[in-house]
Design a protein that fits this description.
This protein is α/β, with parallel strands linked by helices. It contains eleven helices and seven strands. Strand 5, helix 4 and strand 6 form a beta-alpha-beta unit. The chain is globular, with a radius of gyration of 19 Å. It starts with a helix and ends with a helix.
């Protein structure tokens, strides 16, 4: 079975643990199209890369590796996406991989000249995992347009490492590798800013959290899971109902509309 929504999220719910790829440190490279993500991938991995197709898909899968401080890192270049709620095959592939948790860190590449548009994806990923490094790329183009970015303030506001780069020139790559290592190995404590929704939504989340946070088959961020349940995301709801039915958790099943 290919790397699909069912084979990633559903499997992790059932096992109570996240699937890990068979490499030392796996890093996902995500971002909007036209942010210089592929250039960054090439700069980090050099000639140590290969391509193929994602299982069951016609979408190209690019992977590479590099060594940093004697350790091996595998870099998976995800198709460009503006959102995790996308409909194209390419965007579904990126969404499913991020949902799967099959990585130790996620680098989100953003365009320094249009941060506001790129932040949508950043905030969506942060709701799933705190293991994020935001790479503010194309700083040279931003400078030409008179745009200045306070990276320290950006870091403080997001609660995760923010690194400025110019991938074409190789600027900032050493610091990026350092932060990838820190996040992947748990040496950097990421505390991402939590998005606060309307009062009614937050009340519903609070009502759901005690019902799902302690379950053995849950390994995904419970707040993110509660949001997916409130949105009625079909596969997640169906799988949780099945698990609850198997465990005779009738009160919880009723809460989810079962």
């Amino acid at each position: 079975m290919g790397l699909s929504y069912q084979s990633t999220i559903v499997a992790s719910l059932k096992r109570g643990q996240l699937k890990r790829l068979q490499t030392p440190w796996v890093v996902a490279l995500a971002g909007n199209p036209n942010t210089g993500k592929s250039t960054l991938f090439n700069s980090l991995t050099g000639l140590h890369q290969h391509t193929g197709n994602w299982p069951g898909k016609t979408v190209l899968r690019a992977e590479g590796h590099y060594k940093y401080q004697g350790e091996h890192y595998s870099l998976v270049d995800l198709p460009g996406t503006y959102s995790l709620f996308a409909s194209s095959v390419e965007e579904q592939v990126a969404r499913d991989f991020i949902y799967s948790g099959s990585y130790h860190a996620v680098v989100i590449v953003v365009d320094a000249t249009c941060l506001e548009r790129n932040l949508n994806l950043v905030l969506q990923v942060l709701e799933i995992t705190p293991k994020v490094i935001v790479c503010v790329n194309l700083l040279d183009e931003a400078a030409r347009k008179g745009i200045e970015i306070d990276l320290k303030l950006f870091n403080k506001e997001l609660g995760v490492p923010v690194v400025g780069t110019n991938a074409r020139a190789g600027t900032g790559l050493e610091k990026l590798r350092e932060n990838i290592r820190g996040v992947a190995q748990g040496k950097i404590n990421c505390k991402p800013r939590q998005i606060i929704y309307d009062r009614e939504v937050e009340a519903a989340i609070e009502a759901l959290l005690p019902k799902i946070a302690g379950d053995d088959f849950m390994s995904i961020n419970p707040r993110w899971l509660a949001l997916r349940l409130l949105e009625g995301e079909e596969v997640v709801c169906h799988e949780i109902k099945g698990e609850m039915a198997n465990d005779t958790k009738t009160s919880k099943l009723a809460l989810l509309g079962g």
